[in-house]
Amino acid sequence: MFGNAESYERFMGRWSRLMAPKLVEFSGLAAGSRVLDVGSGTGSLAFAVAGRDERAQVDGIDPSKEYVAFAAQRNRFAGRVRFQVGDAQNLGMPDGRFDAALSLLVFNFIPDERKALHEVRRVTRPGGRIAAAVWDYGEGMRMLRIFWEAAVAVDPEAGRLSEKAMKLCRQGELSALWKQAGLVNVREEPLEIATRFESFADYWDGFLLGQGTAGAYTVRLKHETQVALRNELKKRLQLRSEAEPFSLPARVWAVRGDVPFTA
Ligand SMILES: C[S@@+](CC[C@H](N)C(=O)[O-])C[C@H]1O[C@@H](n2cnc3c(N)ncnc32)[C@H](O)[C@@H]1O
Hints:
alpha/beta; Rossmann fold; 7-stranded mixed β-sheet; 10 helices; 24% strand; binds S-adenosylmethionine
């Protein structure tokens, strides 16, 4: 699902690059912070943090060796930004090492999100900030919402997968998790970008690259179901022609909270 960095960039990285600066701004990082990027993928968020503050230092961790290698290769902040293979559920880092931890489009993919947040809290110092964002699959991430609606219309099996992809993706779910983890000053907000496609192919071909839940689902389909899904999507997007450029809104729910000074 997350194994080919070039394909991820084409499918989703181009949108996470647009969202990353918005999450950095929302997180309200203090200048010169040591930051953990949880699920750093191909590096969008780590690079956005380092690009905004020349004193910031960022450690990115991600279980995908391929993504970590790709991010390291693109790293133009060597010395201040590092990437390593790791799992948010078991960070293996000292307590209180970071001033802040940020995470973009990751928490819904972590099998045990409570364990992960507990770990992230452990490695963030008292008073430090933890912020994350997840696509609003339920409504506001149209590119994926339309995809799953079309998939369910042509393949009833798709319903189960689409539900799984939607963990923590509705208003209030992330802030409930943050409060449950004992974080304070918790605030949740929607952040929005536009996903602009040059043509229908620019939209559809991304799913054929096998990345993320939707891509992994698409490449597993039998040829005739894939054709039916393609046709259903075209119908739902209501394009006059396949060559027509179009734009869809994409929203995340973003949350931030602080590690209390007392346990
Ligand atoms: C949609 S990508 C987001 C990547 C990047 N943050 C971005 O915004 O482009 C989801 C990422 O979560 C990572 N991931 C999945 N399970 C994880 C875990 N247990 N701990 C940390 N990262 C995880 C995946 O490897 C993948 O890179």
